[in-house]
Design brief:
The chain is an alpha/beta fold and 399 residues long. Helices cover 28% and strands 23% of the residues. The protein contains 10 helices and 17 strands. Strands 1, 2, 6, 7, 8, 9 and 17 form a 7-stranded mixed β-sheet that branches. Strand 11 and strand 12 (208-214) form a beta hairpin. Helix 1 (25-36) packs parallel to helix 9. The protein is globular, with a radius of gyration of 21 Å.
Length: 399
């Protein structure tokens, strides 16, 4: 392989107490939580809208905040963002019982989930963060980090203004792909099963508009009960440019094929918008001191930072240990959302919106409190989360 030598002299243009890399649901929650603790926060987002897969990826389903048995599991910013997602109207699966004082029995019948409009949710989230004092940097990608004495001292970014650096106290990796963890030298793991192709898009006809969900979210091998329908006979890891470009090209081709087929029976059909980022679910995660598994239902941990349900089945409830959010090499780096330390089966549970919001709030709060997560007073972190309205123990049933 040939190389080009580069001699860089990157200007340091600012300093933040907390830098959140990635503006998906976990990043929104982390930045909001850190700012509410009084930290000076920057949120770096590669795209030009917030929300990640939930908005730019059109995975516009706020999966359940409940356990499927009529009990709410996740609170705090996870619930706040639920209400924010439908502030300007909902599109489907409205949970009447949960939002309009239904009975316990009615809540058992319909889970606490909703389908929202992705564009309106993205704008509402942006306004929420700006009101909290978060500095949002769009079109900005973290391309490198400088590690000094087992801590990240600077985050180096590239955007329209060129290559620049920020000095930082603590970093929250909410890229969804553990990009910062990988750059910083933390141990990471890839999702070996890889991702199926998805091609979700909105379309309109004379009768209105709707979301077409082509392609399915895959499940771990050990959970499969039959054949999984695939748009193409190929899987994608999601951490290489070539794969991601191929995914988008194939997705676009599938959308065009589907629209033309619809037009055969309804000439008024036309696409309104399509996903503008690859719809990968599980790619790369951190390997921390503890790896959570789906077998650990209702198990309490002394360092629990939140509670989630299982969007795929009714009943299971899980506490998430703080240890799943940070590694062992870089002391001031923490993750949230799709990048936390879990088994493949648990990865499929924690990659969705409620879990991303729960772990994001914990990571952002922790980043505002400390620049060394392995020595952070977990009791203080838990106290802050409880004061913010979170639930950290699955033994505490919701009212």
């Amino acid at each position: 392989m040939k190389y080009v030598e580069e001699y860089l002299n990157t200007p340091v243009i600012g300093e933040y107490e907390v830098i959140v890399a990635g503006g998906g649901i976990a990043g929104i929650a982390a930045a909001l939580a850190a700012a509410r603790q009084g930290a000076k926060v920057a949120l770096l987002e590669r795209e030009y809208m917030l929300g990640g897969l939930a908005t730019a990826g059109l995975i516009a389903i706020y999966l359940p905040l409940c356990d499927g048995m009529g009990n709410q599991a996740s609170f705090g910013i996870a619930e706040e963002l639920f209400h924010l997602s439908i502030r300007y109207g909902w599109e489907g699966s409205y949970p009447t019982a949960w939002l309009e004082g239904g009975s316990a029995e009615e809540k058992k019948q319909k889970r606490f989930e909703v389908r929202f409009n992705p564009q309106l949710f993205a704008i509402a989230a942006e306004q929420l963060l700006l009101d909290a004092g978060v500095s949002i940097h769009y079109g900005t990608t973290v391309c490198s980090v400088k590690v000094q004495q087992d801590k990240i001292s600077h985050v180096i970014v590239e955007n329209k203004s060129g290559r620049r650096a920020y000095r930082v106290k603590a970093v929250v990796d909410t890229t969804g792909d553990a990009d910062i963890c990988s750059m910083a030298g933390e141990k990471t793991a890839l999702f070996q099963q890889k991702n199926l192709l998805a091609a979700w898009y909105y379309y309109a006809t004379n009768r209105g508009y709707d979301l077409k969900t082509m392609g399915v979210a895959d499940v771990p091998e050990e959970e499969k009960t039959g054949e999984v329908r695939q748009l193409v006979a190929k899987r994608f890891g999601g951490v290489k440019e070539e794969e991601l470009s191929e995914m988008m090209l194939l997705s676009h081709a599938e959308i065009l094929r589907d629209v033309l087929k619809k037009r055969e029976s309804d000439p008024s059909c036309f696409p309104v918008t399509m996903a503008t980022i690859p719809q990968v679910r599980m790619t790369r995660r951190i390997c921390s001191a503890y790896t959570l598994d789906t077998s650990e239902e209702r198990i309490s941990f002394p360092d629990s930072i939140g509670v989630i349900g299982n969007w795929k089945k009714r009943g299971p409830v899980y506490e998430i240990p703080f240890r799943c959010l940070y590694g062992i090499m870089v002391k001031n780096l923490i993750t949230a959302g799709r990048s936390i330390s879990v088994t493949d089966a648990m990865w499929d549970v924690t990659r969705v919106i409620p879990a991303c919001a729960v772990t994001g709030e914990a990571a952002g709060t922790a980043a505002a409190l400390s620049d060394c997560f392995e020595t952070l007073d977990v009791g203080l972190l838990q106290k802050k989360l409880l004061e913010a309205g979170c639930r950290i123990s699955c033994r505490d049933e919701a009212d």
